Amino acid sequence: MKNVKDYWEDYKKPTPEKFRKLGDALLSVSLFITSAAIYGDQKFVAEISLICGIAGKFLTNLFKSE
Questions:
Q1: What is the residue-wise DSSP string for 15-66?
Q2: Using an 8 Å Cβ cutoff, are 19 and 60 in contact?
Q3: Mean pLDDT within 39-65
C-alpha cells in the first residue's frame, strides 16, 4: 500500500499525454456546465460541477509514465 509521500512523488512526475488531455477536457466541460448553471441560477449544479472538474483534473495528475 502506498503512503502519502509516494503519491506526492507520483504527482510531481510527468503526466502521460492522454491523461493530461483527459484532465483538461474534464475541467473544460465542467467549467462550461458551471457557467450555464450560474446563468440559469442553479447554484447547486454549478458547485457540484466545479468541484468534480477540479477533482478530476487533480486526480489525472496522479498518473505517471512508467
A1: PPHHHHHHHHHHHHHHHHHHHHHHHTT-HHHHHHHHHHHHHHHHHHTT----
A2: yes
A3: 88
Residue 53 has pLDDT above 80, yes or no: yes
**Residues of 28-52 as b/e, b for ≥16 C-beta within 10 angstroms?**
eebeebbeebeeeeeeeebeebbeb
State how far the Cα of 14 lies from the Cα of 5, in Å rounded to an integer. 16
d(CA 43, CA 27): 18
pLDDT digit string, tens, across residues 4-48 = 787 777 777 788 888 889 889 999 999 999 999 999 999 999 999
Residue 48: all three cell numbers together:
457540484
Does this model's pTM top 0.90? My answer is no
